[in-house]
Amino acid sequence: MKAAIKLSALLALGLCGMNAAAGDVAAGEEKAVTCAACHGAGGAAPISPQYPILAGQHADYLVQSLLQYKNGERKNMIMAGLAAGLSEQDIEDLAAYFSAQSSPLRTVD
Question: Which long-range contacts (CB under 8 A, 24 or more apart) does 82-86 make?
């Protein structure tokens, strides 16, 4: 029983901290200018099919991806170089911006 209470408390504390690092959409828009060179305006129109559409992507996925490029877990010279210069707040801001954009992809009902 004590273990369940401790686990619940830890989970609650973790959830409280999630909003502390929430991204700022407006700040992300300013930072996304560089991203547009490959991913297109708003992350919705990549210049090549090999570049992903970022618009409408889940923020947590974008954060995780950028952190993996930054720490070398994901391999791509261009993205690793770009992510290396981003702070955690920059990453949160970019993720908030791109996740707030409308995806050009259609969803299945």
Answer: 82/34, 82/35
**CA-CA distance, 8 to 71, in Å (whole number)?**
30
Alpha helices, H only, 19-104:
25-31, 36-39, 59-71, 77-84, 88-100
DSSP 8-state class, residue 105: S
Q: Name 89's Cβ contacts closer than 8 Å, sequence gap at least 6.
A: 21, 23
How high is the pLDDT of residue 42? Answer: 96
Residue 103's φ and ψ, nearest 5 degrees, are -80, 140
Cβ neighbours, 10 Å, residue 60: 11
For residue 26, pLDDT over 50 is answered with: yes
> Residue 1 pLDDT > 80, yes or no?
no
- Say what the pTM is: 0.77
**Structural domains in the chain plus CATH codes:** 22-100 (1.10.760.10)
